[in-house]
């Protein structure tokens, strides 16, 4: 009996056979994927962290990261080749963002995402962004006056704090929408913003990258991306703010802080060949700034003023949705809004009949947009501010 107890105790205190010591691994916080123009091989740039440079006890003056670029015929081979040039084995579980070149995105991202999904070395919540107008590795190389010293942390915060004029997506959601039916993905876009008055460049998150399945078709500008978020209702509305022309004084503006956005896409079917959609959007916001001066004569003027601003906000939403839907239909032939997904839920039999040629059907489908805006502001009751004589 004593021997059995000893054996059990030995089994319980055994260490993890596959553990990795911190002194043996190199933590990769971000990766960029390009193609070598000469060989056609994949080019992976990994951003390794230097923990000693960020130490709170004895921080080092050296850069807190190391960029290592390696090539390979496959993504996995290129990632593993980094082990031949660094003294630490690459550890990707703490990776925050993957940046992919525009060139590769136009060829299709499913082969690129395959090793990440299959090997599980990179987690599904990692942000996916497309480098517009530059190599992906340049995004990780930019030296600017960011608050964060590590570019991966800067990019992660940039995406976390994104507003309605920028799209964001993680690799898990991207793959679900790519391999699923009825909705095409929109990824984040990173570009290099050159500042003429300062001796540095800055990475900017703006607009959206439109995909038809996994093929990059083109880009949305900031206004079109706002329309995309109004329609889908999945944007970072709690941090958004929009400027509207004042209804009291020409050339002046008011600012509305967007607190919440919800949307619903309702399909309507009249026979198999008569499919249309109704888009209902509801925004709740708060009037936070107005450039006009003067006082309201009575409470009714205050209410009428607020209703007029709501009407301007409503027109803004409907115009931006109309712009982005037309662009998706005419320029991209990509259903990035989930019209097909809504149709499959409400009319599965109809969807089964049209899904094989939905890309073509989507380009011609009619739609109606209805926006409803509810604004509040306790400060408004005092009227616009007016300087005293």
From TrEMBL:
<dbReference type="InterPro" id="IPR038501">
    <property type="entry name" value="Spore_GerAC_C_sf"/>
</dbReference>
<keyword id="KW-0309">Germination</keyword>
<dbReference type="InterPro" id="IPR008844">
    <property type="entry name" value="Spore_GerAC-like"/>
</dbReference>
<feature type="domain" description="Spore germination GerAC-like C-terminal">
    <location>
        <begin position="206"/>
        <end position="377"/>
    </location>
</feature>
<comment type="similarity">
    <text>Belongs to the GerABKC lipoprotein family.</text>
</comment>
<keyword id="KW-0449">Lipoprotein</keyword>
<feature type="domain" description="Spore germination protein N-terminal">
    <location>
        <begin position="18"/>
        <end position="191"/>
    </location>
</feature>
<dbReference type="InterPro" id="IPR057336">
    <property type="entry name" value="GerAC_N"/>
</dbReference>
<dbReference type="Pfam" id="PF25198">
    <property type="entry name" value="Spore_GerAC_N"/>
</dbReference>
<dbReference type="InterPro" id="IPR046953">
    <property type="entry name" value="Spore_GerAC-like_C"/>
</dbReference>
<dbReference type="Pfam" id="PF05504">
    <property type="entry name" value="Spore_GerAC"/>
</dbReference>
<protein>
    <submittedName>
        <fullName>Ger(X)C family spore germination protein</fullName>
    </submittedName>
</protein>
<keyword id="KW-0564">Palmitate</keyword>
<keyword id="KW-0472">Membrane</keyword>
<keyword id="KW-0732">Signal</keyword>
């Amino acid at each position: 009996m004593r021997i059995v107890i000893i054996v059990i105790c030995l089994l319980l205190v055994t260490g993890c056979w596959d553990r990795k010591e911190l002194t043996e691994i190199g933590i990769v916080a971000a990766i960029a994927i390009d193609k070598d123009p000469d060989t056609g091989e994949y080019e992976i740039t990994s951003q390794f962290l230097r923990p000693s440079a960020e130490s709170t006890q004895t921080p080092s003056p050296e850069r807190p990261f190391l960029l290592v670029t390696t090539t390979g015929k496959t993504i996995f081979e290129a990632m593993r080749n980094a082990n031949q040039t660094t003294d630490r084995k690459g550890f990707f579980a703490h990776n925050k963002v993957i940046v992919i070149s525009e060139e590769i995105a136009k060829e299709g991202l499913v082969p690129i995402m395959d090793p990440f999904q299959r090997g599980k070395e990179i987690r599904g919540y990692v942000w996916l962004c497309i480098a517009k107008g530059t190599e992906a590795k340049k995004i990780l190389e930019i030296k600017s006056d960011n608050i964060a010293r590590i570019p991966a942390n800067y990019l992660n915060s940039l995406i976390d704090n994104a507003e309605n004029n920028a799209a964001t997506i993680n690799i898990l959601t991207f793959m679900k929408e790519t391999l699923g039916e009825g909705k095409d993905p929109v990824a984040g876009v990173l570009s290099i913003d050159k500042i003429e008055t300062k001796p540095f460049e800055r990475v900017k998150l703006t607009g959206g990258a439109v995909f038809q399945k996994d093929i990059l078709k083109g880009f949305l500008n900031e206004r079109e991306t706002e329309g995309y978020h109004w329609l889908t209702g999945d944007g970072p509305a709690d941090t958004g703010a929009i400027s509207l022309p004042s209804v009291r004084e020409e050339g002046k503006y008011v600012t509305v802080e967007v607190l919440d956005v919800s949307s619903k896409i309702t399909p309507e079917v009249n026979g198999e060949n008569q499919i249309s959609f109704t888009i209902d959007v509801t925004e709740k916001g708060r009037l936070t700034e107005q450039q006009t001066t003067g006082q309201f004569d009575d409470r009714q003027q205050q209410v009428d003023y607020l209703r007029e601003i709501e009407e301007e906000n409503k027109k803004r939403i409907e115009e931006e949705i109309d712009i982005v839907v037309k662009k998706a239909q005419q320029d991209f032939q990509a259903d990035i809004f989930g019209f097909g997904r809504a149709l499959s839920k409400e009319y599965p039999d109809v969807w089964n009949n049209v899904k094989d040629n939905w890309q073509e059907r989507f380009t011609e489908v009619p739609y109606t947009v209805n926006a409803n805006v509810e604004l509040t502001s306790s400060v408004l009751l005092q009227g616009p501010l007016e300087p005293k004589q």
